[in-house]
Amino acid sequence: MEYWDQVERILRASSFVELVRESKAWATSTGFGHQAYAVKFKDLHGRDRSDFLTFSDFTFRMGPDKMIGKQAGQILRRAGEYGLRAGITVPISSPGVSWAFMTFTTDATFDLRDLFCTIAPMTYVASCLHVSARRLQGCDEATPRLTEREREVLRWAALGKTSWDISAILSVSERTVNFHLQGAARKLEVNGRQAACTRAIALGLITL
């Protein structure tokens, strides 16, 4: 229950300071001591804008594109200073964004195999944080309109069911399930079922 409470606090953060604090608390509770997030926006015509938003455990900043190299270098240098050994970088996609990602790092292990079990929850939390950051930045977007069947297959997929499992549960063909998953991903403007599931959850389109 504490896990979901922490995620809910990330989604409901009322400021960037609160968002950084809550996401750091979540990362720390799962064994990741540090985090960093960055996003670059598009303008109304779909072209890259010259500004971006970035924050880490240390700070958050809005700045021109030419600063991104400097910012990334500072984050990497600080990571080395803190003796960080391994981590996960989660790519994020959404409407109005050229690129976005979130990185979680740890000094608890050198073996990346120890982190495999964290990929799914990290992907979900990164998507939730991205939605919250976009809201705080004043970039609320229209919620995609998914059909009832698209929501249904997404919910089962989010619970770990395969396309074959879902087809048996809903008494439809596996091809039909994949059709609805692809349709939902297209409306959510993401690639793949996992990204579609995490974004749908973060936007409140489905619940588990």
Share of β-strand residues: 15-25%
Write the CATH architecture name of the largest domain: 2-Layer Sandwich
Our measurement of the CA-to-CA distance between the termini, rounded to an integer number of angstroms, reads: 13 Å
> What is the level 1 CATH name of the largest domain?
Alpha Beta
What is the overall shape?
globular
Q: Considering DSSP H and I runs of 4 or more, what fraction of the residues is helical?
A: 40-55%
Low-confidence stretches: none
CATH topology of the largest domain: Beta-Lactamase
By helix and strand content, what is the structural category? alpha+beta
H-E order: HHEEEHEEHHHHH
Rg over CA atoms: 18 Å
CATH superfamily of the largest domain: Transcription factor LuxR-like, autoinducer-binding domain
Query: What does the main sheet amount to?
Result: 5 strands, antiparallel
Averaged pLDDT: 80
Question: Strands across the major sheet, in which order?
Answer: 3-2-1-5-4
Number of domains: 2
Count of beta strands: 5
